[in-house]
Structure formats: C-alpha cells, structure tokens
Amino acid sequence: xxxxxxxxxxxxxxxxxxxxxxxxxxxxxxxxxxxxxxxxxxxxxxxxxxxxxxxxxxxxxxxxxxxxxxxxxxxxxxxxxxxxxxxxxxxxxxxxxxxxxxxxxxxxxxxxxxxxxxxxxxxxxxxxxxxxxxxxxxxxxxxxxxxxxxxxxxxxxxxxxxxxxxxxxxxxxxxxxxxxxxxxxxxxxxxxxxxxxxxxxxxxxxxxxxxxxxxxxxxxxxxxxxxxxxxxxxxxxxxxxxxxxxxxxxxxxxxxxxxxxxxxxxxxxxxxxxxxxxxxxxxxxxxxxxxxxxxxxxxxxxxxxxxxxxxxxxxxxxxxxxxxxxxxxxxxxxxxxxxxxxxxxxxxxxxxxxxxxxxxxxxxxxxxxxxxxxxxxxxxxxxxxxxxxxxxxxxxxxxxxxxxxxxxxxxxxxxxxxxxxxxxxxxxxxxxxxxxxxxxxxxxxxxxx
Length: 449
What we know:
Among the domains are: 100-239, NAD(P)-binding Rossmann-like Domain (Rossmann fold); 245-396 and 432-442, 2-Layer Sandwich (Dihydrodipicolinate Reductase, domain 2). By secondary structure, the chain is an alpha/beta fold. Helix 9 packs across helix 11. Mean pLDDT is 83; it is low at 1-5, 7-58 and 67-105. Helix content is 31%, strand content 19%. A hairpin with a 5-residue loop joins strand 9 (318-325) and strand 10 (331-339). It is globular, with a radius of gyration of 21 Å.
C-alpha cells in the first residue's frame, strides 16, 4: 500500500512499524513483541454480510451487547479556523450531495486504532477489514488478554496484523495513541469512559470516531468539541444508522414531499434482558439505561426525519416522558412524546424489559413511510401513498452496515474536514440536550452528573 500523506494535520507516515510509546505494554497477536505483527458502493468483499441483518440475529446482537459486562464495553466552540468558513461549508455541502469524487484505491490506507475491544468493536473491525484503504494498526484495552483474544477472533487473511497494547486512564491512552502509525481512533468503551478516550485521542492529534453517545451529557461534550476545534482534529459520533443505504431512499421520498406535510413520527427500540446490576446496561457508574444506549437512535432519527421533511429540526415545544427505573436507578424502560410547532409530534419507546416491533413510521398528510423492522439497521423501507399500492425497496448492507460511517470518516479526512456534514457535531449536542431533559424528567442521575 502507498504511504502518501493524507490531507490532514498530525498524521505522519514515516513511522517504523511496531514501535510503541515508551513504557507501554505491547505485543502482537502471534505472541512476539515489536515488528510486524460514501455511504459508498465500494468493494465486493463482504457481500456475505448482507444476510446478517435478519430479525433474530439482530435481536441477539442487541442482547449480547448489553450483557457484555467487561470494562471495555460492548458495545462548536470558539477557535481558529483552518480555512475560511464559507469554503468549508461549500465543501461540506458538496460532500453531502455526493458531488465529490469517490475514494481512490490509490490512496494510502487510513490506519486505525480501536479502543475498547468488545462486541460492538468486533462489528466495526469486520467492516474495516472488508474495505480497501483501511488498516487496523492498534488494539488498545485495559486488559491485554482480552485484546489478544479480540485480535485472534477478528484475524483476517491477507490483512495487516495490529499491535496490541494495554492502557488505562487518559495519560496512558494519550501516550499509546501518539504513535505515528495511527491516523484515526475508534472508541467503543462504555459510555462513561468515552470522554477520557476522546480527549486522549484529540490531544494526540488523531481523528476520532466515537460510539454513541459521545458522552453521557451535554456538559461533558462541550469541552471535547472545544478541544477538537483547538487541535483542528476530526471528531464524529458513530451514529451509523444515518449512513445506511436505505435512508438515502427515505431521504429522497421526504425531500420530494411525496407523503405531503409531515404529521408525526413513531418508533420503538425494545428487547428483553435479565437485570444485572454490574452490567453496563444497568450500572449508573457506566451511564447505563435504555435512553442513552438505544433511545438515542429514536431521538437522532427523529431529528433526521424532521430535517429531511422541513429543512431543519425545530426545537420541541414540550417533551413528556415517563420511565420504569431499574433497582440501580437507571431507566430500564422510557417512553416519550415530543411536541413540535405545526402540530407535529414524535412518540417513541425504548426498553430493556420488553419486546416491540422496533420499527420507524413517518406519517404525512398524503402517505406513510415505514421502516418496519430494526429501524436502526434497516435494509427495507416501504412507501404507501393514498389510493396506491405500497412500494417497497430493499437496500442491503455492503458488508455489515458499519462501512458507511468508516467511509464517511475517510472522505472527510481526505477533504480536510474536521467534522462530518452528514453527522455534524451540532447534531450530537442537540441530541444530548434532549436526553439531558428527558433524564431530568424521569429522575435518572449518574454519580458524575
């Protein structure tokens, strides 16, 4: 693979392979130390992943994520701009509209570190290995044995073997991530640990893709965004649903006004798991609870629907929420209605203690759009207009669904952007503000609030 510099700052390309920071524990999957160890439509490898998203498999993955109890997890501020703001917005607009050229296979590989080798990171790595111009350079965890097991489980023939390192705490993370053979960092630790990993990666000058939620609350997010801007480093919340092919079709229907003026949105994300006070789903010290873990999809896609239908998402006039709290004090089930100007409403329920159809429905004056199953990883959408037969589209994943957000990071970095036009940081802040308000209503507080 080529080693030409990416058009971003802080990504030197001349590092010796396998050279870790001083004092950091480092091994390679083979047992030795040191040495080697667009919503795009690229690549045919990984087409087998298209069949993984069937209903039972998806439900099992959700349950497995929430029962992963390890410490690794399962699952704009002021500052100096790098270029005139108008030019950046123009480039963002062209990227969002798909006017930029596709990523070329002649480009140097984007080299990734994974922080938090758990279940959800496994899905990320599977997508990464199915894409050209992407390379896994480092697996970083609190438990070296776990990192070694993760690397073994996700070894891919013909792919570069990543280094393994052990690190805990922001200082150790920053030292490990400062290695010059890393361009971007994917963070998949439990929610409460996201902040220190994001800060460490940004301080090291790396691009960051962090699992949702970026952090548990708005107050914790603002300093990270200020740091990203000060370092001119890329930062994006990994809300992968927004990059799925089927939502490009839904976007076209909404922007064309096929269903008429928007009337409402309904969605559910529910599954049943046994209560475990030590689980990341139920432990308040890990920012557990259904809202932050899965309800964020309901809220983020509500915002997305309103943006496509109205041009922008208005602030709700009021929000009404009720919840059933687990013995640990986090929400095991939460239902809410958000009321918007013009009589538009959004209703959703998220839960760890029950079942639902897990669909998303968008109501208009003249029609209905449905994503009938597992809307957060949907491959099917249905348009029903008054007096007409339903129109159903099936748009499978290229690999497993995570490829869209990976390709978005690559496109943005090669374009010199510090945030994604499809998942901007303003969206992260707005969704966190809604979740803060809903948690306050139902009485969920974390030890670090």
